[in-house]
Amino acid sequence: MAGVEATQPAPAVDISKTSNMPAEGYDKKCIFCKIVNHEMRTELLHCDEEISCFRDIKPGAPHHYLVVPTRHVGNCKSLSKEHVPLVKRMVETGKEILQKNNVTDLSDVRFGFHWPPFCSVTHLHLHVLAPATEMGFMSRLFYRLNSYWFITADQLIEILNSKEETN
């Protein structure tokens, strides 16, 4: 990351006046948009034009990261087949963050999304939890496989691939 000391708050950015991210890629009411635009004091573990990553404020596992599109994208139900590469990139970024944090057993990891209406934030976000075997009781419930409220990244990709292309 470039040039901002950890003790200094990042400057607030008026995204509507920047040329590299138009207003339609930013929701001023969205907490995740504010985080990726350095309007909040949250450490970004990864940030590029497409993907950003930070720690979950209520971790459900020893390693719990949120991988989000840098530009505002709605929840899982708002996605189409054309979003499959984005979801795959989110998963790859999650794996890279885990590896940078010395998580090498990727078989004990949970990658998934809360299914609407069970989303607390409507900005698309991938939960990356590891090790899954160390999740507590409530986390096992919130991030439970094959539930109405949580789907894996692979399940989302399968759903999106079954949709028709949008024009």
Automatic annotation (TrEMBL):
It catalyses: adenosine 5'-phosphoramidate + H2O = NH4(+) + AMP. The active site is at residue 125. PANTHER family: ADENOSINE 5'-MONOPHOSPHORAMIDASE HINT3 (PTHR12486:SF5), APRATAXIN-RELATED (PTHR12486). GO terms for molecular function: hydrolase activity; nucleotide binding. A motif (Histidine triad motif) lies at residues 123-127. Residues 31-140 form the HIT domain. Belongs to the HINT family. It comes from the Eukaryota. This is Adenosine 5'-monophosphoramidase HINT3. Keywords: Hydrolase, Nucleotide-binding.
